[in-house]
Amino acid sequence: QVQLVESGGGLVQAGGSLRLSCALSGHSFTPRAMSWFRQAPGKGREFVARILWSTGATYSADFVKGRFTISRDSAKNTVYLQMNSLKPEDTAAYFCKVQATNFQDYWGQGTQVTVSS
Fold first, then answer.
1. Could you read off the pLDDT of 76-106 as tens digits, one per residue?
2. Helix or strand or coil: residue 74?
3. C-alpha distances out from residue 115 to 12, 18, 56, 77, Å
4. Are residues 19 and 8 in contact, defined by beta-carbon separation less than 8 angstroms?
């Protein structure tokens, strides 16, 4: 059974940093890509960043460029999201997603990030 476990969320002041982790286990495939999404209260889920597993190429939403960095540790089957210069509007539940080579998606349960002003 594929499992994605996010960690690293919490409460931080504006301007602070957090590092989210997402560990993949129980899979029998090599990931095609892993991504981070977020969902603020009362809003839809939005894309944050993606990393291609084979090449490490990354793509980020415009609103996080220069502040958030996605990376991976292939040996640990883990993807990270380093978040710097956090703003109150970054407050959301952050979700990890893995896309398998057959393009099937699996989601984690999410980790809460709260940024106080």
1. 999 999 999 999 999 999 999 999 998 999 9
2. helix
3. 5, 10, 29, 28
4. yes
